[in-house]
Design goal:
Blueprint lengths: L19 H20 L2 E6 L4 E5 L3 H4 L4 H7 L2 H6 L2 H19 L9 E10 L6 E13 L5 E10 L6 E7 L5 E5 L4 E4 L7 H11 L4 H8 L3 H14 L5 H10 L4
Antiparallel strand pairs: 1-2, 1-5, 3-4, 3-6, 4-5, 6-7, 7-8
């Protein structure tokens, strides 16, 4: 067992924040619920003011065998039930270092940042473990730039093990990878894709085969394979599937 309140230790408190934005957040939830029906999206919203989950979607991946209302009521205690101890320690470390990075950002840029990482969930009903990718981004900040509501998206990970932590920005072509040895985020050089590589990547995202891409781009399948190898190398991933995933969440194309 861990002290779940440790997840909230790095958060700067603003005191009473009022109820107006709780009405606004309902609109976000309605929109996200609609989107989740179309793309099978698992998500939940953290209320850092009340230190609880404000909403949890009914996607079974994140629920890990629990009922939606059970997870909503448990809040962060849910993590203590379904996340293996090693991964839970990792999450606490990433939480601390992530907020340290967040608070060093200019206030106007904080709502542009997103953090992505992978960890394991243990299903209540079967005891089996799955590796998921978890992305967190501020949804609403307070007037002083502190995080109030955060949106978390959960999907199956394409990685081989927990970790793989990085921070990106919506408004700038930047990425910071977490160095678990030095316990800090370090800027990562981004190798920009060529126009042709972006064309190939767009077709990969749409599920086209090498043969189909060859016909649509009027180049040989060997050239398609050459571009795919370059894409994988430039995006610092291990497979075409992972490249598609990284490109999608970071809006590369």
């Amino acid at each position: 067992m861990i002290a779940i309140e440790k997840f909230f230790d790095p958060i700067r408190k603003d005191g009473y924040l009022g109820d107006d934005n709780y009405e606004l957040i309902k609109q976000y939830i309605m929109a996200l619920r609609a989107v989740s029906k179309l793309i099978n999206l698992g998500f939940y919203i953290i209320d850092y003011n009340k230190q609880e989950f404000l909403y949890v979607s009914d996607d079974p991946l994140f629920l890990s065998g629990y009922e939606q209302e059970e997870v909503l009521k448990m809040g962060y205690e849910f993590y203590d039930e379904v996340v293996p101890s090693n991964d839970l320690d990792m999450l606490l470390e990433l939480n601390e270092k992530g907020f340290e990075f967040f608070y060093n950002l200019p206030t106007k840029r904080r709502d542009k940042a997103s953090i992505s990482y992978d960890f394991r969930l243990t299903r209540k009903d079967t005891g089996s473990e799955i590796l998921v990718n978890h992305k967190l981004t501020p949804l609403i900040l307070t007037e002083t730039g502190n995080i109030w509501f955060a949106l978390c998206l959960v999907s199956l990970s394409v990685a081989e093990k927990p970790g793989n932590t990085f921070i990106t920005f919506q408004d700038k072509d930047e990425r910071y990878d977490y160095d678990c040895t030095r316990k800090q985020f370090k800027p990562t050089k981004i190798n920009h894709l060529s126009r042709r590589e972006k064309d190939v990547l767009q077709l990969m995202i749409k599920g086209n085969s090498a043969c189909e891409m060859s016909q649509k781009l009027f180049i040989s399948e060997e050239t398609i394979k050459f571009h795919k190898r370059n894409i994988i190398k430039k995006l610092h991933v291990k497979s075409a599937m992972e490249a598609v995933y990284i490109a999608t969440i970071n809006k590369i194309v």
